[in-house]
Amino acid sequence: MPVMDFPCRCLVLLVLTVLASCGRPARPANVPAEAVRIPEPSGIDLWQYCAMRETSVHCQIFNVGGKILNDDTFVPYRGVAPMSPSDLRIAPSGGTASVNLENGVVLIPQGDYQHIKNFLDWQNGLRPRP
Question: How many structural domains comprise the chain?
Fold first, then answer.
């Protein structure tokens, strides 16, 4: 079995070192410390943060650079509205228009409810193409 020559071994070592040092970007300064990172297959993660208000749930969704993509009152698409802060544990899934909670509840922005509901219904096979 041939042994790799010195330049090949150096190249392999360099590639492995670079890959080991690569990681996901840190949370931007304007994203709340309690926000949950939502890993995306593309590597361009999102951050989601939700808090109870007097009678509603307010969520913010940020891109990897900290730009706010969604900032609205969120209401249930599926499941029951959270009743306490302990019901607001965000699961590391979802997207720019929905927040998935660990208890199975899916929240979507109230301001664009019907449009997003139609899309999720289609995505879940509950209606024809929107």
Answer: 1
